[in-house]
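To assess whether the prediction recovers the assembly geometry, we first specified each molecular entity separately, as shown.
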Amino acid sequence: MAGKPLLEVRNLRVEFPTRRGVLTAVDDISLHIDPGEVLGVVGESGAGKSMTGAAIIGLLEPPGRIAGGEILLEGRRIDNLPYEQMRRIRGREIGAIFQDPLTSLNPLYSVGEQLIETIQTHTDMSHAQALNRAVELLGEVGIPAPERRVEHYPHQFSGGMRQRVVIALALCVNPKLIIADEPTTALDVSIQAQIIALLKRLCREHGTAVMLVTHDMGVIAETADRVAVMYAGRIAEVGPVRQVIQNPKHPYTVGLMGSIPSIGQGDGRLTQIEGAMPRLTAIPRGCAFNPRCTMTLEHCFTDRPELVSVEQTKVACWHHEKELADA
Amino acid sequence: MPDAPGAAAAEGRDTVMQVKGLARYFDVSPPLLNRLIEGQPRQILKAVDGIYFEIAKGETFSLVGESGCGKSTVARLIVGLYRPSAGSIEFEGRDIAGLSRAEMAPLRRRLQMIFQDPYASLNPRWRVRDIIAEPLRAFGLETSAAGIERRVGELLSFVKLAPADGAKYPHEFSGGQRQRISIARALASQPDFLVCDEPTSALDVSVQAQILNLMKDLQREFGLTYLFISHNLAVVSHVSDRVGVMYLGRLVEVAPAKTLFSAPRHPYTRMLLDTIPDLSMSGRDRTPVAGEVPNPITPPPGCTFHPRCPFATERCRTEIPLPITTPGGSIVTCHGVEEGRVTEGPVVPGAEATEGIQT
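The predicted structure of the complete assembly is given in tokenized form:
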């Protein structure tokens, strides 16, 4: 891949100190996002996908903390910046979209006031200029009659419209990267499709890179260029989205893809992965997936697999490492 | 309004549930004083507004639709948690809509419900064995302590949990395991008919697959009939024999699952199917449904879908459509299909994927 990555995460560890010991929510993960690229991060509840996103924008809720590794934005470390400096990066260089649009907006201020505040925090526009920009943004995210809607309060918008406002907020100073954490999960399917189409178009037009965190493989298939599959705080598999979906390599990804019902598939049984994701207090030794895996080797119970390249994807699985060694 | 002819008659299976003109209105008016002083009118929310369907013995009938379309209200009406404002619900030929509590009691044993949220539907202060034994005690199915213990163990093993799990509390289980407990409790009274209201929407996909497989196995083993409520079209396509699509309190299309998903007729069904993310990555164009669901307190006149429908005409804006049966066996409520205006195939031929904004 040509050029420098926009964002680089190296060996990131996120920990939660608790009374019963330290829990590792994100365990030594590395990934990168190129300019203008959409990286999907997919996994089930507790896989650590949202924690990874929160660590990148510096919004980990205490007592959560980054315990190791580094995060680089255009080659500059951002994981150890003081609060004020990080605050300036958030919004100007990295935007964020969260799952629930109602909690991302302040109910006591009109949508326009919130947009203007964000614009003026990050640029030296006058109030009138910022207002113009706010109206322009609302129009851009597809809100009808933006010059009137700019005066409305969040409760006067429907769920889909609120998420559009949140997208406008994230885009208002043209960030290079947007972290979108389950942006469509709270929405109905028909609205979800609208929001995905909007996000895709805006990012293409503005050249914005997106880290799209979701549990929904369908959203990833529609939107992402590459996808990282997370399991128990680690990356199980990462690669081009088509590769990962049509030809998954990790036994977990294989099971996950098989367990998604699809239309016209008929009455067959769904592939079943027995058991559930381990709790953070009880992550097994070796490969975290070993209790649910049907093709375990001796190594799987003792040593943690590293990501190895198989075709265009990278897989953390002893099975593939063995195949590579055998070949 | 004509009775909707169902697939049950065609297949020669017995109809267990027949719903005719079922409606449920909620009064959401402002308080009396506000109405008097501010002159505000009464407001009636028509959550379910006259629907017809029937369910054959041993089949899975699904209701699908977006939030606020009334699908959960139908579920609650059928198990008797709400009283209908109009219409009838016939269970094995007997109208259960107007029954008193006492008259309903013996039927409760046979009609059970599985709820969406396995965290809210189990009493956190009860042990699992007491949760599952409650229906046994309530209906007097087992009276001896030994009998109850044996039956609870059996029920737990039906849902692939260990009999020893009965001694634990709900918080010791994951979401998927809790949903298994809910299913065991529903099965305790040996019901024939299960109403499942979004049973897997709170679960992760790999756990969802376990629960859907389990429900299928149990249906085969005990000859259960399911009314399955979901917003997830892929899940519905996977589990259902027949499907009803709801929009703003009305059924817009009822068809066998295979027909509905391969040859949908109603414009809303077709647009809804277009919104499903494409895992096969065929690169087809998507046509998201334009606009949003209108406020159900003030639904549009005529066909409630007309503001979002690309085929809408003057008739659609004024006259409420009646259900008609198509040659393909679907029951469709659409003037356009009736007049042959709505062609098969893509809704908007060659349309670019839009973000679906209508001003």
